[in-house]
Amino acid sequence: MTITLEALLERTAGRLIVSCQAYPGEPMRSPDTMARVAAAVVQGGAAAVRLQGLDDVRATHGTVDVPVIGLWKDGDEGVYITPTLRHARAVADAGADVVAVDATLRPRADGSTVADLVRLLHEECGVLVMADCDDLASAVAAAEAGADVVGTTLAGYTAARPRTEGPDLDLLRQVAAELPDHPVIAEGRIHTHAHARAALEAGAHAVCVGTAITHPTSLTRWFVEAMR
């Protein structure tokens, strides 16, 4: 699927995006499993899916009739969500309709900027860009660099802002107010229906949920801890 920004926004406005990811070493960590999870959430009404890893993107691309947001996590410290131009190109080549990149203001390993990534993905790869941001400054910078949508994905996961118990609704309100004409996707620690509704009310164009839908290990742990 090759999708325009207009079509993406029309399909996702006020709707749910589901992140389908499993961590290394977990039983569900296989591209086929993640593709099946993606198909299941689409059947449940997801307007788009977000996949991590080239094999997962390849396995899902063409098997669902919704946009695929792809990324490549390489490492677990610093900038590791689609961290370089090489990673970005590879995710696009794997079939992602939208490539998600770390858009924080931290340095990247190859010295590239968010503007460099946007230029590559738009001009050479012909795909859209989702900027995973951690604060207002990074969201504004990503929008100015040409990112098609910005997300609050990394709020609370860098030193830029403290981690809130649920979604960082204050940041979401700030970004929506500062960028009224730019679509903002709420993502990060959205664990309940109430969180999702609150995110829309705070100005989100769409809401992305991962762990609370697609990660049974965490869901089970939440129940176990609550019953102790």
Could you give the topology of this structure?
Layout: H1 5-12, E1 16-20, H2 31-43, E2 48-52, H3 54-60, E3 68-71, H4 85-93, E4 98-102, H5 114-125, E5 128-132, H6 136-145, E6 149-151, H7 169-178, E7 184-187, H8 193-201, E8 206-209, H9 211-214, H10 216-227
Parallel strand pairs: 1-2, 1-8, 2-3, 3-4, 4-5, 5-6, 6-7, 7-8
Helix pairs in contact: 2-3, 4-5, 5-6
What does this entry look like structurally?
The longest helix has 13 residues. It is built from ten helices and eight strands. The protein has one domain: TIM Barrel, CATH 3.20.20. Helix 7 links the parallel strand 6 and strand 7. With 228 residues, the chain is of the alpha/beta class.
Domain unit count: 1
Can you identify the CATH class? Alpha Beta
Please tell me how large the radius of gyration is: 16 Å
Q: Would you count the extended β strands for me?
A: 8
Give the biggest beta sheet: 8 strands, parallel, barrel
Strand order across the largest sheet:
1-2-3-4-5-6-7-8
State the low-pLDDT regions, or none.
none
CATH overall fold name: TIM Barrel
Overall helicity:
40-55%
Taken as a percent bin, the fraction of beta residues is: 15-25%
Could you give me the name of the CATH homologous superfamily?
A: Aldolase class I
- Please name the CATH architecture: Alpha-Beta Barrel
- The coarse silhouette is globular
* Average predicted confidence as pLDDT: 97
Helix and strand run: HEHEHEHEHEHEHEHEHH
Distance between the termini: 47 Å
Number of helices, where a helix is a run of at least 4 consecutive DSSP H or I residues: 10
Structural class: alpha/beta
